[in-house]
Design a protein that fits this description.
- The protein is mostly beta strands.
- Helix content is 7%, strand content 64%.
- It has an eight-stranded antiparallel beta barrel.
- A hairpin with a 4-residue loop joins strand 6 and strand 7.
- The longest helix has 13 residues.
């Protein structure tokens, strides 16, 4: 059975072709991550927290190597709170489209509610590596920095997270 997985993985990695990070193509995917918060809020007694983070997204390449889109964040952790956020993002790939491994930078600003209907905002920046398994599918490893704010309860937190995700790059029909 392990031999079958190895053959499939070898086929995916050995497929050649340029990545679809060019103008007028779509980007669909997401990531899952784990993060640890360093809180500086008296409301929650300054306790630190941890959570899982799921983040699907959809984007469109407005220029070669530059995508704009929307992402949804679902965050659940040890504070018994669930947060849902939605907002725009920009993503830029640094290397040429022919590269099998590419570096990217993404920034987003999301806003939404938690379980107790408290308003949140989140500024996020991430840097990562996209490893193209073929011309359309990329495995991504990223380091994320998040700044969460809630003015109504005087809450803010900073977090660093490691995330793994997949992106599917869809070529526009000609």
């Amino acid at each position: 059975m392990k031999k079958g997985y190895f053959i499939v993985l070898f086929f995916c990695v050995s497929f050649t072709g340029k990545a679809q990070i060019t103008k007028n193509n779509w980007l669909v995917g997401g990531e899952a991550g784990f993060f640890y918060n360093f809180n500086n809020s008296e409301t929650i007694n300054g306790n630190n927290s941890y959570a899982i983070h799921l983040s699907p997204n959809i984007g469109y390449f407005i220029y070669d190597k530059l995508a704009a889109g929307s992402k949804f964040d679902y965050i659940a952790g040890n504070t018994r709170s669930t947060t849902l956020l939605l907002g725009p993002f920009l993503r830029y790939y640094f290397l040429e489209k022919e590269k099998r491994v590419n570096l990217f930078l993404e920034s987003s600003y999301n806003f939404g509610l938690d379980k107790q209907d408290k308003d949140y905002s989140n500024f996020s920046t991430k840097v990562g590596t996209a490893i193209f398994l073929n011309s359309s599918v990329a495995l991504e490893l990223a380091l994320n920095y998040n700044l969460y704010r809630n003015k109504s309860i005087d809450f803010s937190s900073n977090s660093l997270s490691l995330a793994v995700g997949f992106q599917i790059h869809l070529e526009k029909e000609k």
